[in-house]
Amino acid sequence: MRKTRQLAASAIGAAALLFIALTVSDAGVLGRSPGQWTPDQVGVIASLSLDKLTAASNDPSNAADGQAAAIAFGRALFNDSRFSRDGSVSCASCHAPDKQFQDGLPVAKGVGVGTRRAMPVVGTGHNAWFFWDGRKESLWSQALGPLEDKVEHGGNRARYARLLQTHYRTQYEAVFGRMPMLEGVPGDASPLGTADEQLAWQSIPAGQRANVDRVFANMGKAIAAYEKSLAYGESRFDRYARAIAANDASGQREFTAQEVNGLRVFIGNGQCVTCHNGPLLTDQAFHNTGVAPRDSARPDRGRAAVVAKVKADPFNCLGPFSDARPEQCSELRFIVADDPALEGAFKTPSLRNVALRPPYMHAGQFATLEQVVNHYMQSPAAVLGHSELARGKGESHAERKPIRLSQEEARDLVAFLATLSGPIVEKAPQ
Amino acid sequence: MTTRLFDTTLSALALASLAGCMTPPPDLDLSLQHPTQDKKFVVAMQPPTTPPAINQIHSWQVKLSTPDGAPVTHARINVDGGMPQHGHGLPTRPQVTRELADGTYLVEGMKFSMTGWWEIKLAIQTADAADKVTFNRVVTDPTAR
Question: What's the CATH fold of domain B28-144?
Fold first, then answer.
């Protein structure tokens, strides 16, 4: 009996010593013990977790959204390089499934070379606005842009309509009903194409032009249905956030002390969460953060250059090819059109899987996340427009504080960003 | 012991800096009814009864009256705002689309793209008067819907 008690006492003593040792070692690494979050911080961390992501609602402007047949049709179109000028480029060329649905290049390369970084397509079913400048307001309309862009797919809608008729008629008609006859439609014609293609487009009777536009729009709707099925899966951060919310101490071991500290910087003095908020780590809005343009002689105006364009786009939510009622087109109806802050502003990207998808920024200006974090620590003045980041005294953002991080905090932040990596999953239709 | 004290100070500093960029000022006036800047009108703001999700476009109602409580009809109301601590404006341009009843206006296109302190600024113009008013709104948990 006495022996047992002695053993128990020793065990308790050893455990106490171990506890002290652990505490001291944590304190040595961090300057504070990990996992100690205030209720406010717990709330912020939970708000970034995938557990808080509600299912994306169906796009009212796309009646094919969520249909299994449209998803399968869209997947085939997404991977089919016949839909390009020279048969070499599909959507998957710049949005490669084995490269996080991006291409790993600073600026996209299609039949020519673009001026911006290819964006990720995963999780975009939750988007408001598409492309870095938001020049499209639906996923289906977005899909149409590169198909006719002269340096991306470089093709034209007349040719695409004929290709659909030849190769995909059954799949098309299963989703969208009878495909119109395309007699009299030239092989290559588009209002946005070369001079010859524009002339050819003008030669088509108006009713037949509308048929081609309708087939082209439906092509975008099928591709959008497929893209919308691509979702980010659970990351180590999501498991850590769940453990925090449940006050589960063992689950919190998912994170190293450095990652815990990086998260603290992310939601604290790094101010990252100011724009990278919600489960997809984006506010879906446009900001100028003073990232230097690739070509300072011709700086990219970003959002400011496209507001009129998206309002006039025949493939927008209010246009003749949309399935939505006008009152459902809220983003377009209440678009910010005249704010000087749109000059040089670009869309906040999601940070899901960010460590797996260099380079960074709208034109791949930075090769590493260390450079990205350093940019925010420097907060340079914008070449065009005005950076929202505070840059110390003399700035007009009275309420915004400059981002001041130690080198150690910057390293911790980069370590945290890698915890946002998880699988990409293709969701079954609901 | 010295090390412990130093750590505690660091933590306190870290918390203070967190408070600096995340937390709204403690003395914010969050009331949804006030007189306008020059006391020409009284404005009452009515958010939706069910709090909207982050980034969900929704509508508010604005009740506009004279200082003695008479409804003010046929006013033109311009809506603006933003996040003073972040240096950006509203993600949408909300608009008064209808006068639902005498002095009660429907503001469509409201959207908050994140939690935190937002300002909603109204510029009001009638045939005989113009005035401005600012309301503060602290947007909380996005899953409140």
Answer: Immunoglobulin-like (2.60.40)
Interatomic CA distance for residues A228 and A218, integer angstroms: 15
**Cβ separation B55–A277 shorter than 8 A:** no
**Closest CA in chain A for residue B24:** A399
Name the architecture of domain A68-231: Orthogonal Bundle (1.10)
Question: Domain residues of chain A, as ranges?
Answer: 1-33, 34-55+235-426, 68-231
DSSP code for B127: S
When CB atoms are compared, the residue of A287, A337, A398 closest to B88 is: A287
Cβ distance B22 to A267 less than 8 Å, yes or no, reads yes
User: DSSP letters along B64-115, please?
Assistant: EE-TTS-B--S-EEEEEEEETTTTEE-SS--EEEEEEETTEEEEEEE--SSS
CA distance A358 to A185: 43
Of B93, B113, B142, the CB nearest to A47: B142
Better-scored residue on pLDDT, A21 or A192: A192
Query: At CB < 8 A and 24+ separation, what contacts does A146-149 make?
Result: A146/A91, A146/A94, A146/A110, A147/A83, A147/A216, A147/A219, A147/A220, A148/A190, A148/A192, A148/A193, A149/A110, A149/A114
Task: Give mean pLDDT, residues A242-258.
Answer: 93
pLDDT digit string, tens, across residues B73-127: 999 999 999 998 888 899 999 999 999 999 999 999 999 998 889 999 999 999 9
Model confidence pLDDT, tens digit, residues A262-289:
999 999 999 999 999 999 999 999 999 9
Give phi and psi for A123, each to the nearest 5: 80, 5
Q: Would you say the CATH fold of A68-231 matches that of A34-55+235-426? A: yes
CATH code of domain A34-55+235-426: 1.10.760.10
To the nearest whole percent, how much of chain B has pLDDT over 90?
Answer: 70
Number of cross-chain residue pairs from A and B with Cβ atoms under 8 Å apart: 116
Q: What is the pLDDT of residue B14?
A: 38
Average pLDDT score over chain A: 91
Looking at the complex, report in whole angstroms how far the Cα of residue A278 sits from the nearest Cα belonging to chain B. Answer: 8
Q: Give B-chain residues touching A339 at CB under 8 angstroms.
A: 89
Stretch A166-188: mean pLDDT, rounded? 96
Least confident of A8-17, A184-193, A232-241: A8-17
**Domain boundaries defined on chain B:** 28-144
- Beta carbons of B108 and A334 less than 8 Å apart: yes
Nearest CB neighbour to B85, from listed A47, A287, A399: A399
Chain A contact residues (CB < 8 Å to B)? 27, 31-32, 38, 40-41, 43-44, 47, 52, 54, 128, 264, 267-269, 271, 273-275, 277-278, 283-285, 287, 330-331, 333-339, 341, 388-390, 397-401
